[in-house]
Amino acid sequence: MIFDGAERPVTSHDVARAAGVSQSAVSRAFTAGASISPVMRDKVRSAAALLGYQPNLLPRMMLHGRSGFIALVVGGAYNPFHAATLEAFSRALQEAGKKILLLQVDDDRALDAVVNDLAGYRVDGVVSALSILGEEAAAAISAHRIPVVLLNSGLSSEWIRVVETDNHGAGRAAARLMARGGGTRFAYVGAPSVASAARKAGFQHELAKIGMAPPLCLEGNLDHDGGYAAARAMLAAPMRPDAIFCVNDLTAIGVADAWRIEGGLDVPRDAQLVGFDNIAASAWPAYRLTTFDQNVDRMAAEAVRLLVSPAPATERSCVGFTLIERHSTAR
Amino acid sequence: MIFDGAERPVTSHDVARAAGVSQSAVSRAFTAGASISPVMRDKVRSAAALLGYQPNLLPRMMLHGRSGFIALVVGGAYNPFHAATLEAFSRALQEAGKKILLLQVDDDRALDAVVNDLAGYRVDGVVSALSILGEEAAAAISAHRIPVVLLNSGLSSEWIRVVETDNHGAGRAAARLMARGGGTRFAYVGAPSVASAARKAGFQHELAKIGMAPPLCLEGNLDHDGGYAAARAMLAAPMRPDAIFCVNDLTAIGVADAWRIEGGLDVPRDAQLVGFDNIAASAWPAYRLTTFDQNVDRMAAEAVRLLVSPAPATERSCVGFTLIERHSTAR
DNA sequence: TTGTATGCGTTATCAC
DNA sequence: GTGATAACGCATACAA
């Protein structure tokens, strides 16, 4: 406090000088399980407290060779489910003692920069739900031997692990549920993604198995207006569906809104409706939507487990869903 | 590739040896604007590419004393607006060349750990919308001389900068708008927060100024069910309000739902309704909610500007709102 | 248990 | 323009 002009951060040497001990003693006083006497540790720590010393963690990373950082790569499409996912994953990683480097990717240019950062910061691993993270990016990351965990991705290569929901099983369950509820004219409202394809396949598979006509399939985006537009198309169709499975809750809510506002129809009276993700809005009194909870906490735990595996490995982990039955399928 | 068992990351020394040059040459080949001949740079870079070398950025941080990290501190309450905020801020910080350390705080215990990390990782600054980041935490961060930017916070101390929306002005605008629309029995649905208090004060101030009776004030949480419960109370009240301003869109949507489902009433016929935040759902056909956009991109830009200021300073920056008029106030 | 000395991978300051 | 060398702040092998 005398020499430095209140500019340079306090170092272990400063503390050592103040306490009249060696720099290594200071290091040991802040290292769990180090061989140091209680009296020495107290002396050092009180001197440290006085100076406002906080160990710099950057050199530690250099020495260990591991940064302790996990990159969380997120991208534009904001959906309430993604927010919940982000929260679950950051919580799980933090509890595992990892620090989270948040990287936002908006286009391919940003992606290149991100891949460089991943290597430059010596991250211990990467977690992403981003579909933009395709073959070439995966290859680039593999080249640096960084474990990657992807969510609901079809990708598969060295150093890539995938955590996925049982999408096919959920599609089958949706078909069974609505058939039991008396549905006869089925429809699927999807979007171009691996997860959507699997949900649709399961839906179609089960319908065929129980002797139902194949569903009417519509494609949209993953957003509310995608569902709304699809519903308008269905309202105009010759055979109006009475059992609709949507790729996610946002589109399902769009369908429900169009059903009521554009068609003057009611869910579930005029059509049963099933969504996916169990977002907060699905429980609102206006919707009471039957949906599938992806158990993001378990997915996050799985991701952490797969991430600590140091060897190159292609592993897939499938997390079961939880069916949340609400009013939209009540008959 | 011969000696190491494919374990140790490639260093600049490895590249130097492979290219037959000095380690400094390698450093220069990867430093923008360094004094190096094109032929040398190409030689080094091709050798680097061959070995898969990526400069380690950690030592650079040690030398500079600045990490280039900005801590983004987020907390439990997930609201679509927070997701949009997070996106805007991470984008702005990334464009400013900062790396984002995402820290999740759930309770006071986690907060202590976070404050330690802030110092340990030598972050260049902290951004947070968290109200949990109170006096004592702020003091702890100030002690490490780390600039902090808070959103819509009333806090004020050394090293703390605040970016806020013109909450008071928005409250006044909401009052004027609904009075012009013919409202006579006003209500405010709030929550315990500094921002809510300012919005309410502006609302009350303007109503008094134009000679209206003071609004009925209800307190809830910031979520859908808070608005729903408040609306049920209003429906049971002797003088049912006909002009309602809500602390945010989620509560406003809750009010709209209760109005329709519990009361069989219509917005805007039976009551005008104004929200805050301009979340995606506010534009859905079922709500078409008049609301205030906080211009998060501008807030994020302001935050970045305040963050780069190295000196201790107490600065406040007020970002104007944009009124989004929709059907819920159409008369 | 404690102090001394060395190394982590890079950038920056010097000579050449 | 290029190479040797000294730092950055800490952890650790080793000597005492």
From TrEMBL, chains A, B:
InterPro entries: HTH_LacI, LacI/GalR-like_sensor, Lambda_DNA-bd_dom_sf, Peripla_BP_I
Gene Ontology molecular function: any one: DNA binding
Pfam family, one: LacI
Residue ranges occupied by any HTH lacI-type domain in the UniProt entry: 10-64
Transcription listed as a keyword: yes
Protein's name according to its UniProt entry: LacI family DNA-binding transcriptional regulator
Alphabetical list of PROSITE patterns matching this protein: HTH_LACI_2
Record's keyword terms, sorted: DNA-binding, Repressor, Transcription, Transcription regulation
This protein's record includes keyword Transcription: yes
PANTHER family per UniProt: LACI-RELATED TRANSCRIPTIONAL REPRESSOR, RIBOSE OPERON REPRESSOR
SMART domains: HTH_LACI
